[in-house]
């Protein structure tokens, strides 16, 4: 029925009377405020018609009078300086039936406006009136027209990012309905004209959103818009495309079916050809629909071009044949589907150095950026591909809210983001081809360099390179560059002896040369003698890793005692890297002394500076450091003591974060005792930054601390780090740590730690919607809980109550939650008491006891409010919002849920943010506002933080209800069908409810 022309739509022309005077030349409007011509030394006047008719002098609002007086002002403003006769104005204000004193009334309105406006703005001319002398940007409509023109030019030039941003500024100028509350036929005609233009601008901006890959975010807005404008086919077309690109093909086709039925019923016509063609393309899975028709350019304001390559070494030497070979392959990437080169060789042979050097030389061929990751393939815990993909997507400008959870979805989104870009990906230190495959770009113009100790013969299409040790002349050249030509020239034979003793292994040569360069009193012969006398195992360098160990032995043997101790002990920690404060805890030294030691180890190449204040070992160096600790650390108990201090550091620091986040919670009083201090935090923000920044290291410490002496402290650390799971930031790693802790506690027969681990696992399963698994863990935890463990004694029945509630076992839920409430009160755990009250509120609500449900939630809120626990208060408001919804106090419910939503968003809790959007959707649905219900349900889905497949099913069910009420039964059916599939797979009781919803649609 309607369409949007190419480019940005311009405001439709208004009809002009033949008797209108020729308009004077008007000044060009702009966003900046201008001045009126009739006043000097006064603030500029501004007018608004894109909303209520208003006037300002500077920032001071002016009184524009009665509705008819505002109608007169609007009529004059919209004539853009042209004179309107009295007859035209009377017709504009009253139409065909003006009052008998219309002319007198008109003059009165004009006189009153003159008293409000600056002198010379409202003028009388030829028996009529005009508004003159307005400065640049004085009328919001003129500003909107200029910005729309700017957006059109940007789009024509291919700068979609700028065009989108300008259109957002245009649309932000509207403040409600155009000419709101202004009477008269002229105002009504202009209202229709300008509202149509606004809708065209919205369609144009949404079209550009889809061109730039923002389809998931657009679905929510388009759903609301199609509900408000059901006959507008362009919006339906955009919604179909957005749904299809979001992986929701069934819903996209359902939108077409709903549209065809609506047009036939309302207008007796078929959909326009463009809509029908899109349906056919979706049915055929047309590849052209899978991604934007043109590459999404970088936003002009914040270009996202990652430059993650590590610094190349200034003394890179040799490997000229490999440099040329790899350079030629990368240079041909533009004309190939994907260029992949895999470098293999023993540790220390220089794979990373060569790859980084070649990547830097090839940067010009990859103008859209370079990605880098250390996959830690030689370590005990290689990097998970899904974690790496999350990091890459963020580096490429993808918002956290749209990054999916599963490996397959992340890999698909990664390839989509890279489509049309020329990016080089350096995957360093890979474990095997399986780890690498999801990280490959898979599109022409991109390339990947992979380094690994293993030959990747099973990596299809890869160009394989086996990197051996350096040639003798290259090895000597590298040694000379580091040590200096002057020192080597006079002892060339000794220098050859040194590089030969190093087995021509680049890392061994670098370590030896660096030590020599740092000791000016040594000669090359002294170093050669040391290698010959003390490290004869270097003759066995061709025996794989032993060669690397011997090379590291050279550097280690030259360390001062304090450096050597730091090297040994730091290698014991399992995390991917270590912060300076954590390292200080391991070494039991002040931070300043620790930093001096670590920087000296960086100088010897035995340690790397990962970022300011963070350090990491090369994986093989870490293994060697541990071997040194086992061999040299005296007394041997110091190894365990170092790891114990690290555990204490993480536990004490995380407990501080927990206390800030949850004031009054007794958990911090029941933690296993520590003997070493952690960090203190000045603000909640810095505390959360530390917790999320240390997530992987902290959870690695939990997994490493499972032996009996440290098991209970490991359990305590897991408990105080629960935000890592609740926020979804590290939920998978957290679950793995909890599972390992549970297994270790059971094997050691530690009921205390096992109860805490199983309760924690139950919480993880509940958040993921796995209620059967959660019930098993929580039941076992409750049987293990004892008076010596107040936390488990309180939280195990709390989780059982929550699980029973979700399984609709309401009497059991009430029993368990009442037990938990009594236990929390016995422990004087006031926040726990509030949590039990809020959960009991939900049970009472389900039992039909609405008034007691409201009372229980209000009791919980009062407790949280008194404690100043903002995050927990949001949980209380959430529970009260549910109760108020059932009580049909919809406005009160929305107030509670909206306040909770803001807190969840501020506290980085996407799971709670998602379920709150879902609950707000339920409120709007109950209140008879299906467009808003659908919009919030879509936001819950788009947020990808709704907590597992079961919760996704609940959101889809509500979304289907909203769409059904909006007259979109086919799309509603698609949502319910997907929800039913989820419930049947999980064996959820909700499946019967969805079947009942589907049956009337089917019939």
Report what the structure shows.
With 1003 residues, this protein is mainly alpha-helical. A five-stranded parallel sheet has the order 8-9-10-7-11, sandwiched between helices. Strands 1-2-3 form a three-stranded antiparallel sheet, with no helix packed on it. Helix 9 (249-266) runs antiparallel to helix 43 and helix 26 (637-661) packs across helix 27 (684-693). The longest helix has 27 residues, at 185-211. The chain is globular and about 115 Å long. It starts with 44 loop residues before the first strand and ends with a helix.
Helix content: 55-70%
Give the count of helical stretches: 44
Class from helix and strand fractions: mainly alpha
Give the DSSP E fraction (strand runs of 2 or more residues). Answer: 5-15%
The major pleated sheet works out as: 5 strands, parallel
Mean pLDDT: 85
Distance between the termini: 30 Å
Shape: globular
What's the Cα radius of gyration? 35 Å
Please give the order of strands in the largest beta sheet. 8-9-10-7-11
Low-confidence spans: 1-5, 15-40, 293-303, 534-548
In total, the number of strands is 14
């Amino acid at each position: 029925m309607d369409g949007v022309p190419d480019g940005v739509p311009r405001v439709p022309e208004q009809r002009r009377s033949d008797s209108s005077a020729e308009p004077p030349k008007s000044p060009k409007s702009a966003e900046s405020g201008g001045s009126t011509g009739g006043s000097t030394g006064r603030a500029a006047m501004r007018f608004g018609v894109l909303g209520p008719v208003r006037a300002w002098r500077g920032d001071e609002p002016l009184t524009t009078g009665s509705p008819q007086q505002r109608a007169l002002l609007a009529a004059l403003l919209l004539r853009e300086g042209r004179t309107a006769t009295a007859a035209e104005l009377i017709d504009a204000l009253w139409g065909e039936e003006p009052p008998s004193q219309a002319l007198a009334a008109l003059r009165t309105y004009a006189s009153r406006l003159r008293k409000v406006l600056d002198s010379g703005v409202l003028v009388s001319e030829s028996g009529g009136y005009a508004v003159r002398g307005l400065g640049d940007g004085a009328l919001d409509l003129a500003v909107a027209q200029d910005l729309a023109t700017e957006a059109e030019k940007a789009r024509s030039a291919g700068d979609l990012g700028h065009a989108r941003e300008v259109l957002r500024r245009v649309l932000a100028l509207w403040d409600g309905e155009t000419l709101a509350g202004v009477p008269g036929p002229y105002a009504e005609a202009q209202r229709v004209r300008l509202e149509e233009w606004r809708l065209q601008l919205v369609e144009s901006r949404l079209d550009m959103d889809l061109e730039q890959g923002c389809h998931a975010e657009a679905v929510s807005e388009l759903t609301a818009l199609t509900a408000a404008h059901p006959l507008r086919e362009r919006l339906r077309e955009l919604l179909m495309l957005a749904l299809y690109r979001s992986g929701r093909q069934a819903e996209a086709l359902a939108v077409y079916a709903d549209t065809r039925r609506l047009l036939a019923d309302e207008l007796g016509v078929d959909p326009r050809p463009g809509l029908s063609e899109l349906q056919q393309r979706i049915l055929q899975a047309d590849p052209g629909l899978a991604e934007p028709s043109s590459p999404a350019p970088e936003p002009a304001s914040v270009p996202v071009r990652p430059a993650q390559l590590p610094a190349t070494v200034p003394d890179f030497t040799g490997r000229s044949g490999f440099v040329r070979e790899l350079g030629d392959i990368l240079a041909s990437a533009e004309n190939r589907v994907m260029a992949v080169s895999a470098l293999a060789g023993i540790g220390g042979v220089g794979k990373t150095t060569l790859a980084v050097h070649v990547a830097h030389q090839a940067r010009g061929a990859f103008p859209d950026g370079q990605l880098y990751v250390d996959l830690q393939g030689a370590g005990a815990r290689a990097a998970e591909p899904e974690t790496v993909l999350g990091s890459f997507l963020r580096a490429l400008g993808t918002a956290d809210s749209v990054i999916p959870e599963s490996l397959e979805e992340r890999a698909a989104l990664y390839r989509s983001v890279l489509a049309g870009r020329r990016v080089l990906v350096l995957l360093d230190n890979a474990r095997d081809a399986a780890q690498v495959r999801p990280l490959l770009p898979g599109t022409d113009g991109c390339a990947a360099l992979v380094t690994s100790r293993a030959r990747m013969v099973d990596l299809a299409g890869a160009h394989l390179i086996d990197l051996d040790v350096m040639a003798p002349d290259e090895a000597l050249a590298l040694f000379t560059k580091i040590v200096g030509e002057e020192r080597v020239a006079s002892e060339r034979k000794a220098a050859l002896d040194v590089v030969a003793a190093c087995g021509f292994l680049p890392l061994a040569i670098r370590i030896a040369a660096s030590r020599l360069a740092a000791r000016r009193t040594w000669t090359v012969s002294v170093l050669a003698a040391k290698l010959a006398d003390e490290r004869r195992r270097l003759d066995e360098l061709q025996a794989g890793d032993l060669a690397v160990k011997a090379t590291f032995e050279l550097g280690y043997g030259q360390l001062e005692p304090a450096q050597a101790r730091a090297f040994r002990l730091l290698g014991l920690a399992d995390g991917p890297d270590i912060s300076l404060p954590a390292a200080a805890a391991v070494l039991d030294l002040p931070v300043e002394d620790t930093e001096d030691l670590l920087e000296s180890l960086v100088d010897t190449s035995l340690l790397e500076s990962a970022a300011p204040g963070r350090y990491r070992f090369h994986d093989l160096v870490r293994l060697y450091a541990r071997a040194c600790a086992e061999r040299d650390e005296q007394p041997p108990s110091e190894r365990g003591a170092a790891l114990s201090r690290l555990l204490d550091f993480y536990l004490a620091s995380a407990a501080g974060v927990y206390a800030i986040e949850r004031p009054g919670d007794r958990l911090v009083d029941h933690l296993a005792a520590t003997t070493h201090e952690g960090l203190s935090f000045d603000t909640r923000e810095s505390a959360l930054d530390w917790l999320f920044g240390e997530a992987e290291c902290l959870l690695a410490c939990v997994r490493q601390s499972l032996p009996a002496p440290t098991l209970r402290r490991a359990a305590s650390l897991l408990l105080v780090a629960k935000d890592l799971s609740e926020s979804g930031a590290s939920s998978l790693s957290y679950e793995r740590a909890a599972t390992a802790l549970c297994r270790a506690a059971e094997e050691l027969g530690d009921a205390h730690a096992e109860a805490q681990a199983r309760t924690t696992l139950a919480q993880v399963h509940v958040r993921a919607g796995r209620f059967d698994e959660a019930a098993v863990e929580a039941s076992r935890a409750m049987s293990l809980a004892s008076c010596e463990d107040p936390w488990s004694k309180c939280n195990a029945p709390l989780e059982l109550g929550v699980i029973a509630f979700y399984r609709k076992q309401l009497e059991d839920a009430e029993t368990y939650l009442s037990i938990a409430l009594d236990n929390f009160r016995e422990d004087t755990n006031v926040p726990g008491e509030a949590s039990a009250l809020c959960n009991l509120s939900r049970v009472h609500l389900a039992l039909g006891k609405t008034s007691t449900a409201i009372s229980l939630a209000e009791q919980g809120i009062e407790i949280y409010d008194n404690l100043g626990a903002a995050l927990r208060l949001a949980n209380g408001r959430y529970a009260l919002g549910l109760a108020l919804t059932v009580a049909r106090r919809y406005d009160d419910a929305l107030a509670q849920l909206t306040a909770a939503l803001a807190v969840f968003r501020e506290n980085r809790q996407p799971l709670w943010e998602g379920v709150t959007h879902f609950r707000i959707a339920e409120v709007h649905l109950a209140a008879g506002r299906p467009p808003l219900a659908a919009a919030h349900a879509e936001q819950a889905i788009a947020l990808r933080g709704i907590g597992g497949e079961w919760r996704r099913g609940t959101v889809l069910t509500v979304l289907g209800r909203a769409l059904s009420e909006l007259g979109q039964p086919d799309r509603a059916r698609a949502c319910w069908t997907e929800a039913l599939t989820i419930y049947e797979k999980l064996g959820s009781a909700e499946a019967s409810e969805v079947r009942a919803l589907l049956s009337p649609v089917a019939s």
